[in-house]
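Give me the 3D structure for Retrotransposon gag domain-containing protein.
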Amino acid sequence: MDFKPPPQMSLAGNVSDNWRIWRQQFEIFMTASEALNKSHRVRIAMLLHCIGPDCVNNFDFGETGSTKYDVILAKFKTQFSGLKRSVFSRYEFWKYTKPADTPFAQYLNTLQNLARPCSFMETDEMIRDKIVFPA
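Predicted structure for Retrotransposon gag domain-containing protein (135 residues):
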């Protein structure tokens, strides 16, 4: 059975979250397609093909040029996990307005999701302030 690979990873927005979500999708794809039993070389090729040229071209393979799948995966994690864009995330959080006819619970859930990558010291207080002072 053939399984469709995940879409290429996006470098737009919160790259850290994009990486986390993309990696989950990729791991599901690798498991479903029984690719985890293949050689390191084949798994690395699948990873590089699926993640897309934008990520590959921005990736530093280092001097070692490792041939171990887990090492390459860990290098991607290190590179992308550090790319949190809290200023942009905060901008998105503060500019968001409650759409008309949206239930409060859905609005609150959206605010919680928008606040997650913002690195607020007091996330609950920021959400409260956004609700009280919607801008």
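The two ends are 52 Å apart (CA to CA). Let me know if you want a second pass.
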